[in-house]
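EI: anyone free to look at a 313-residue chain?
SC: sure, send it
EI:
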Amino acid sequence: MKNSERSFARRIDLTSLQLFVAVCELGSIGRAAEREFIAASAVSKRLSDLEATVDTALLYRHSRGVTLTPAGESLLHHARNVLYGLERMQGELSEYADGVRGHVRIHANMSAIVQFLPEDLGAFARKHGQVKIDLQEQLSPAVIAAVQEGTADIGICSMAHVPSNGQAAPTLQRRPYREDRLVVVVPQQHALAQSDSVAFADVLEWDIVSLQAGSSISLAMRAAAAQAGHALHQRIQVTSLDAMCRMIDNGLGVGLIPDRAFELMHGVGHLRALELRDDWARRELSIVARDFDALPVTARLLVEHLCTPAHAS
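SC: here you go
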């Protein structure tokens, strides 16, 4: 951290940030003072000092209250992030007093969560009962963004076809986690069901039931369709694999699903899975981090657990 940045951090007062957010939320210094049980003059002084610290006006003051300047809108966004981070810090530290000895934040895509993570995280939790795991399901691009921004310690996703968000994504470190293969799911009476395998080019003439537009599977399908010079008829988009299977079972199209996920959902409708012959159908799920060596001890333990041969496909 540069000296100027360190000096700025020392001059920012958390109480002033809290009062600034309160004023922004209520649109009035007086109402914020009442809610925070502090004199309005004291709130006004805090805001003036804050403006002096950042060397710019943050609020437009008028007879009916206050409104934000462009700089104030920017500060409000950052102030909320800082205060939210402090709340999380307090919550996590309080867990140590209750016996928790570690905390790992994971963001993972649906394929990893449905196919592999329940067993892998369950095995880790049985070995390390005092480590708390926070897991959030996200689309692969959002997983990468969360790791880049530091809201997740590690991410698990498919990196193929994911937009790089400029030049940031290549700076992430990655380690292999698992492999899966996409299969084409069709109703048992569908014309394609007569074959054991199919090329994606042959699927393109049918309506597609797909996951959300930003999912790694949807991105891969769009790329393959563009390469084939064919339109992709994504008539229905859903947010879960079981919803996709139910749509397909009711004749609303065909879809692509990871093979193990389909096996785990066996019995959802009268469906058949066909091998997808295209090379891109075989996918690698990766564990990503900004710096594996710099992770907290508990996060490194989890990464080691997930990367052991016992958990490889």
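EI: The two ends are 43 Å apart (CA to CA).
SC: 👍
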